[in-house]
Amino acid sequence: MDLAFTNEERAFREEVRQFLRETVPPEMRRKLVEGAQLSKDEMVAWWRILNKKGWCVSQWPKEYGGTGWTSVQQYIFKEELQMYPAPVPLAFGVAMVGPVIYTFGSETQKKHYLPRIANMDDWWCQGFSEPGSGSDLASLKTKAERKGDKYVINGQKTWTTLAQYADMIFCLCRTDPTAKKQAGISFILVNMKSRGITVRPIQTIDGGHEINEVFLDDVEVPVENLVGEENKGWDYAKFLLGNERTGIARVGVSKERLRRIKELASKFKSGGRPVLEDPAFRERLAACEVELKALELTQLRVVADETKHEKGKPNPASSVLKIKGSEIQQTTTELLMEVIGPFAAPYGEHPDSSYEATDWIAQSYFNNRKVSIYGGSNEIQRNIITKAVLGL
Amino acid sequence: MDFELSEEQRLLKEAVDGLLSDGYQFTQRKKYMKETGGWSQDIWRRLAEQGLLGLPFAEVDGGFGLGAVEAMIVMDALGKALVLEPYLATVVISGGFLRHGGSAAQRAEHIPPIIDGRKTFAFAQLEKDSRYDLHDVTTSARKRGQSWVIEGKKFVVINGESADTLVVTARTEGAQRDTAGIGVFLVPSNVKGITKETYPTQDGLRAADITFTGVEVGAHAAIGDPNNALLLIERVVDEARTALCAEAVGAMDESLKITVEYLKTRNQFGVPIGSFQSLQHRVADMFVALEQARSMSMFATMAVDFGDGAERAKTVAAAKMQIGMSGKFIGQQSIQLHGGIGMTMEAKIGHYFKRLAMIENTFGDTRYHLRRVSESGVLV
Ligand SMILES: Cc1cc2nc3c(=O)[nH]c(=O)nc-3n(C[C@H](O)[C@H](O)[C@H](O)COP(=O)(O)OP(=O)(O)OC[C@H]3O[C@@H](n4cnc5c(N)ncnc54)[C@H](O)[C@@H]3O)c2cc1C
């Protein structure tokens, strides 16, 4: 057992840091630190820089443009991005549909889509959830009917993150209405510009626009856009959901947030002194740091074990990471609320420019409630642990 | 001991609930939010017609002379309906200053227009570095001849945009954190030297940051002793905290109701999600948190009229702390149990969560009051 990073790993971390210092536009970093929204163009431009370096799809197999890094390196890379902070490559393309395509897709699909994902020529979104099918995803109703060399898709997807930017959506559709739940589902790639697609924005409680409803009315899709075999889509979806383990805990995000908390806590006063000097506050902060350290180590144990674990098989450890990671992210936003106290109230740009902009804090407290809901809610994660690990 | 409402109190509750269930549906609230000042003149008029704006004022001042329990009943109902109108700022806080500290002349001038709904008020107290300490005041009030001249800046003044009159805390002598030398002043919001920057708040109200530059008001503007008003401020703010506790209980009560209803109607895996025991236990815990909050809200309600200021302060601090804890738990869990729907602006549930979060950070958050309780010694 050796819990320290090797010299090579430390050197690698330094290399990543150096690269970020040289390439991340300061304005973009400032926005991320202050919780401001980035534009699509800003993100795409940065991801293209990353791609030029060959790091955009780092975790993919080398033949498709990956780096061949060890899983520890992958972890370090992602953590550095989250901490700097710089936008992590769009998960929907890079971490979700990409691996599905190179694992189960046709040669034509691989040739066409993979380089476009790496270079962000296509912005992907995830069309899984429906109004009636969230936790119980397999009950989904959107159906794709085979008509000659086309599928005709009808139905509705919802909570679709950043569909407003998307060029492509990967959808789970029912292709066999007679089969039992999971059995009749297919994984289909759909161009967002297709006739019959309507995107309606959903405003989140913090006032932001990141999720959408996507309506599909007689949308025609060439059969070549089916991934793998018809009616096997559920297996691919399971693969996709279980595939992401290195970033799920978002340790780097929470580390960055703690740094920001300390910065603000040295400016905002309580009892006439900086909040950071308040022993009770320091204890809360320390408690959060301890939990985060534990999570980081748990994450590293999972990462180190990755090589032994069968690829694509859901690892119940990712449920631990998801639960604790989301809880810690939420705690950091609560600490931020505590730091700014009554100044949590203003919504939108605070008119007084002499005052620290704080409107993003309550908004991120509200918005971060999502992290225990999406990606398999924390209740569902607990069900997985009780069944798959504890055998109850 | 008697936790039951009297017949009159029950009637009052029915009246407020009736008015709000008729006039304050969620869609109506959205409309009111867009009106001038961010609330509805029409609702304000109806509250006046029902006598609700006059509840706490003495009969000699034209009010009904009712007490803390009646205030609790009203605030609870306002919390349930997520009311935007400036009841707290006008009736509870500014009304409180007039009732406890106002001269006969001040009461005669200001109370009738509050009761009949013609005028609203706002409380300008928070400063950049004061956080929750009521004695931390840099805004100054200096005597010039017969007048007071006010200089300084106040932040996040709820209803500051549309209030006719501001109740302003200002230092007449001493240093920033001295307990002595603080006064309370009535300042018409349209006098020279006042500038306002207005904005919406996270929970859908409207607020203003207000700068006072050489604002001149008459000698009669001071409520109570201009050099020693901290006790008055503490008393009124304790009443405000108590009112917020009742409002929060109303909001929690409604959140739980909506959530339980959702658990009965939302199906996943072919059954209502309310059939999952983990969720049943969660709403049971929410119920426990609600009842704990309700008890402490009642406790604070009983205590605001205590003669002993220290005893009152401690009780109210304990209540505000409990409300903070319960409100956070109920607010967060009600979003969680709604899943994606809970995250949307379109669903009402999220608005309770946001209001509860803002209540927590008003006049002292959970940590602040925890410290006050621990410093004040024994509670039980
Ligand atoms: C901000 C945001 C972004 C999202 N982005 C996307 C996206 O891009 N693409 C996409 O496809 N989806 C997306 N989702 C959807 C997300 O995956 C679902 O919200 C999630 O699966 C929960 O489903 P639901 O909202 O229907 O809630 P429900 O499944 O109705 O759950 C409601 C509550 O019941 C609980 N529950 C359900 N079943 C059980 C059970 N068996 N035992 C115990 N408790 C249970 C849940 O944990 C939750 O608390 C997003 C969601 C959010 C909030």
Question: What does this 3D model show about the protein?
Answer:
The complex is a heterodimer of chains A (392) and B (380). Helices cover 45% and strands 14% of the residues of chain A. Chain A has helices at residues 7-23, 26-33, 40-53, 71-83, 91-104, 107-118, 233-243, 251-265, 279-305, 317-340, 359-367, 378-389, and strands spanning 124-127, 143-147, 150-157, 168-174, 185-191, 197-202, 211-222, 269-270, 273-274. Chain A has 3 domains: 7-89, Orthogonal Bundle (Butyryl-Coa Dehydrogenase, subunit A, domain 1); 124-231, Butyryl-CoA Dehydrogenase, subunit A, domain 2; 248-389, Butyryl-CoA Dehydrogenase, subunit A, domain 3 (Up-down Bundle). By secondary structure, chain A is an alpha+beta fold. A 4-stranded antiparallel beta sheet of chain A has the order 2-3-7-6, with no helix packed on it. Chain A has a 3-stranded mixed beta sheet with strand order 1-4-5. In chain A, strands 8-9 form a two-stranded antiparallel sheet. Chain B has 380 residues and is an alpha+beta fold. Chain B has 3 domains: 7-119, Butyryl-Coa Dehydrogenase, subunit A, domain 1 (Orthogonal Bundle), CATH 1.10.540.10; 122-221, Beta Barrel (Butyryl-CoA Dehydrogenase, subunit A, domain 2); 230-376, Butyryl-CoA Dehydrogenase, subunit A, domain 3 (Up-down Bundle). In chain B, 50% of the residues lie in helices and 16% in strands. Chain B has helices spanning 7-23, 26-34, 41-49, 68-81, 87-101, 104-115, 230-265, 277-303, 309-338, 349-360, 366-375; strands at 121-124, 140-144, 147-158, 165-171, 182-188, 194-200, 206-217, 222-223, 267-268, 271-272. In chain B, strands 1-4-5-8 form a 4-stranded mixed beta sheet, covered by helices on one side. Chain B is globular, with a radius of gyration of 21 Å. The mean pLDDT of chain B is 96. Flavin-adenine dinucleotide sits between chains A (125-126, 128-129, 134-135, 159-161, 211, 370, 373-374, 377, 379-380, 383) and B (266, 268-269, 273, 276, 278-279, 336-337, 339-340, 343). Chain A: Residues 231-390 form the Acyl-CoA dehydrogenase/oxidase C-terminal domain. Chain A: Its EC number is 1.3.99.-.
